[in-house]
Each structure stands twice: as structure tokens, then as C-alpha cells.
Design goal:
Two copies of one chain form a homodimer. With 306 residues, chain A is α/β, with parallel strands linked by helices. In chain A, 42% of the residues lie in helices and 16% in strands. In chain A, α2 packs antiparallel against α11 and α7 crosses α8. In chain A, 53% of the residues are buried. Chains A and B meet through α8, α9, α10 and α12 of A and α8, α9, α10 and α12 of B.
Chain lengths: 306, 306
């Protein structure tokens, strides 16, 4: 198997991971969570979102979180921004990088940001322009790259079109999200095959949800296509924790196990990630879905098995 | 991606899946479980084990289960046999196929059947001889093909040696088990690369446990190597449900989702498997780990997510 020697993991637990949690999380707990993540060897943490608190009350303390965390120079602390107002708050809070987001499909884009795909571009263009003017790099999330809960399968060419528009604006990387976690390796392969006609592998990150248990299989397919950047969330946080297709982002610790066991370096300590996942699990008071956590939790026993 | 068009799934839920469950399951419930499985399109079901009841009390009713199930001609009903006494009981119960089992590693073989690998061969040879004389086909399970809980990593050449011995005895197929669910695609690829020097893909089945979430990734790697037979258990039954590394066999419904979505035919109805998984979950009174069941259980909801 032809695989990259090194992979960068972008931890999205504090933002994409927590945004739909119903348990109110204190600012001090978020700060502690991020500080612990900062000690694991990660060099990129998406820590919050500067959306209007009306939309995501859980992240209303975005500016306070940024102010209170212990920042390390080796780490890029990023935040989502939906519009100019959010960007201004993010810049004021001295975030390192901002991320804009939209969907490849009309249905999800409409549901998520109440605009058509075409209407979204000028809004993001203004945000990206101002972010670049303020000296920030910009990441672009494209959601529903495999399928949309409203529109069905997404055509790879539609993802290419959206990515082209975002790169024209001046973003440095797109993260391709299988938002509802339906993707399988053949679909990921087809998507990347199309994407890599227009973009380099290093311009792309993959963002898998493990709703149907296919996330790690999709990671391996992406690796075989030369992709070296992956988003994940400790504990498998994220997604719609209370909804159909509950599983969230691929768990950072499960991804680390896979990569390390395949001889791929990440610079991140599995043990530290596991402990941080147990910490946030305790705060949330619900059992997180990652496989590595299940192993850590259980006691030794002996069984007859094939 | 080069993939086979059709795959055979061998359902091991009633045997490998239930053998370590602490909840006592009534014979009538096992019979109902198997009868429901028989209606899903499966053509192979491993239904019980003729080991001494002292070792696996849960399967002490092996003969009764075989007598009471509604058998379909299109389905091979198989059972494990550890020795001549077990084989005789299995033949008397008119099983269609028997399976013998041993480990590739000394440590697990010793722990599981209290013999060295070398000491195991003559015992199995006698069983296989008598089974073939009685007109039964014989399947051979090789456990710990990736790693052993006692001896660490298993050398692919050791798996080849054990498989050669089993095929010399006259078995028709080996099932290669990643018993403790530690395998990753590079290791599966290396194992199959070695195995396929000596054997044809159609002589091999893969038996993955999903302890670390890598089972489906390992399936995809196996498919790319031409493997067309996989063992799985509805609901992800099996493994050591109460032990470290809890997750059991790869769940049949998760495997079906992957295969069908990749355009690979199985002849099995996902819906029927899901319903049967819910049935046995109800009998066991514990939540099974499969992703498809989590989706079936949850209600629709809406979330902000990437």
C-alpha cells in the first residue's frame, strides 16, 4: 500500500464537536479542555465559532474562551466565522486562522445558513477579503460532499465548483465534509479522483463523520490518494448527538490508532488524547462513542473467541 | 478501485456471537433468532458449537437448537466442533458443515484449547478425517492472525504454515480471524499478500472484530485483494462483551451497508438483518454496538454541523 509518511490532524472537538451538545458547558471547562488538547502534540485546534449566540448558544462565550486559554506558539487556534460581524469578533479575539463554511448541496446550505449556494459566495468573499486584509489565513469547509440529507447524492463536479470559487477568493485549504456520514470508499475515491484533477492533495483535508462506521475506511482510501490532512474530534464528539445517525466526527483517538499502527506519524500522543476525551466525557455526562475509549474504560477479562 | 461484484457473508451471530454472553438465552429464543436470520437472504449461518457444556454453558443446547430450527435448503447450517466427541454430536444432529478451530499463535492456542499449536494438528486431523468420511465439508478457523493477546504480532508466515496443515487435512476453506481486533489495513494487506502466494482468494474468508473501529477498513483492503467471503455477526455480537476491547465481530448490518453502498451484491436484506439484530438485542437486554442499529433507534432531529 502506498501511503504518506506523515499526517496532520486538525482537532475540531471544541467547536464542531461541542456545538450541538445540550449540556451547558462552562467557559472554564472549555478552557481546560482546550488547554489539555494543547498538551497532546496537536498543532491545530478549532476552538470555537463566532456565529450569533442565537444560533449556537453553546458557543456564545467564543471571545472569552480565546482570551482565557493558555496559547502555545506551536499551535494554530482557529475559529469558524459565518459573516463579517463574526469575523470582526474573531479578529478582535486574536484568533490565528478563520474558517468559512458552506455546503456543496442546495438543501443543506439552505437549512444550515438560509441561503442558496450562489447567494453564499458573495457573503463569503467579503469575509475572506477582510480576513486576508487582517493578515489571517482562511480555511473553507464544504459540507455534504458525498450526500445531502435533503438532495441525495452530491455530484463530485459540484464540490469542485464550490472549491474553485473558494480558492479564487484566496482560502488556503478546503475541508471536505461527509456531514451525514454516509460515504463509502468508492464514493470518496470518486470524489477525490475528480478533485485532484483541479487541486493538489495538500490543498485538501477530509472531514469524516462515523455515522455508519465507514470513517476509517474512508480515511485509508483518502491516504491512498495522497491526502495528508484530516479533521477529527476527541471522543467522536459532534454530529447530532441526539439525532438519527448519532455518531459524530471520527474520533481523534481512533484515527490516531489507525495511523500510528500503519506507521504514519502524527506527532500526537494517543494517551494524551484518550485522557482528554475522558475529561470531556466527564463534563458532558454521557458516554462517548469512540472505540479507544471503550477499551480504556473496560477491565480485563477472558473469553472463548475466534 | 478494483472490487469484486459479489460477496458471501457467513453469519456467526448465533455461535461466535452468543458464546460469551452472560445472559442465559432460552433454546426457543435461539431458534427464533436463527429462523429470523434464515429469512434475510443469508446462505450460511454458523448456529452453535458442540464443545463440552462445561466450557461454554451458553451453547449446551446445541443439539436441541439444530433439531428445532426451521431449516431451509438454500442455507448451510454450520457448527463448531473441538474434537471427535463434538463431531459425533454434530453429525448426529445433522449439521451441514463443521468448523474446526485453532490459533496461529502459541499463547492464544494454549489459552483457548490448552494445547500447543503442534499438539493441535493431530487432534484436528482426526476430526477432519471423520467429518469428511461422514460426508461433511469442513471449515477451519485460524485465530489471532494479526496479533495475539499473549505473544504480540503474528508473523504472516506462521498463518500460512497453519493454513497449509489444515488444507492438507482436507478442509475446504480457512477463516482468518483478527480475534482481538487490532488489525489495520497495512497488516491485513501484508497477511493476504503472503497468503495469496500459497492459496487462492476463494479459499479464504476474513473474520474481523471491530474492537478498534478498523474492521470495515480491513474489509475494504481484503476486497481489493480479491477476498469475497466475510464472517460477521448481527448487531456486532461476539468478542468479550464484558472485557477490555469489548467490541465483537464486525456487525453484519454495518458490513452490508458498506458492501451495498459500494455496489457489491450479497443477496441479503439489510432491513431483515437490522430487525433480527433488534430482536436479539431485546433478548439480551443490552445495547448492541452496531452503527446501523444506532441509526434505527434514534429519532430525526436537526443540527448545525459541518
Amino acid at each position: 500500500m502506498q501511503l504518506p509518511k506523515q499526517v496532520q490532524i486538525k482537532e475540531v472537538g471544541p467547536c464542531d464537536g461541542l456545538q450541538n451538545e445540550k449540556t451547558f458547558i462552562k467557559t472554564s471547562d472549555k478552557v481546560e479542555f482546550i488547554n489539555r488538547l494543547s498538551e497532546t502534540g496537536l498543532d491545530y485546534i478549532e476552538i470555537t465559532s463566532f456565529v450569533h449566540p442565537k444560533w449556537i448558544p453553546q458557543l456564545a462565550d467564543a471571545a472569552d474562551v480565546l482570551k482565557e486559554i493558555k496559547r502555545k506558539h506551536s499551535i494554530t487556534y482557529a475559529a469558524l466565522v459565518p459573516n463579517i460581524r463574526g469575523l470582526e469578533r474573531a479578529i478582535e479575539a486574536e484568533v490565528d486562522e478563520v474558517s468559512v463554511f458552506m455546503s456543496a448541496s442546495e438543501g443543506h446550505n439552505k437549512a444550515n445558513i438560509n441561503k442558496s449556494v450562489a447567494e453564499t459566495f458573495p457573503i463569503l468573499k467579503e469575509v475572506v477579503n477582510e480576513a486576508l486584509a487582517a493578515g489571517k489565513t482562511v480555511r473553507g469547509y464544504i459540507s455534504t460532499v458525498i450526500a445531502c440529507p435533503y438532495d441525495g447524492y452530491t455530484q463530485p463536479k459540484q464540490v469542485v465548483r464550490v472549491a474553485e470559487k473558494l480558492f479564487e477568493m484566496g482560502i488556503s485549504e478546503v475541508s471536505l465534509g461527509d456531514t451525514i456520514g454516509v460515504g463509502v470508499p468508492t464514493q470518496v475515491d470518486a470524489l477525490l479522483s475528480e478533485m485532484l484533477k483541479s487541486f493538489k492533495a495538500e490543498q485538501l483535508a477530509m472531514h469524516f463523520h462515523d455515522t455508519r462506521g465507514t470513517a476509517l475506511a474512508n480515511v485509508v482510501t483518502s491516504l491512498s490518494r495522497g491526502i495528508t490532512k484530516f479533521d477529527s474530534a476527541v471522543g467522536g464528539l459532534g454530529g447530532c448527538p441526539y439525532a438519527k445517525g448519532a455518531a459524530g466526527n471520527v474520533a481523534t483517538e481512533d484515527l490516531l490508532y489507525l495511523l500510528h499502527e500503519m506507521g504514519i506519524e502524527t506527532g500526537i500522543a494517543l494517551e494524551g488524547i484518550q485522557q482528554t476525551a475522558l475529561f470531556i466525557e466527564g463534563i458532558l455526562g454521557r458516554t462517548l462513542s469512540s472505540k479507544q475509549l471503550a477499551i480504556v474504560r473496560k477491565e480485563e477479562d477472558s473469553c472463548q473467541t475466534l
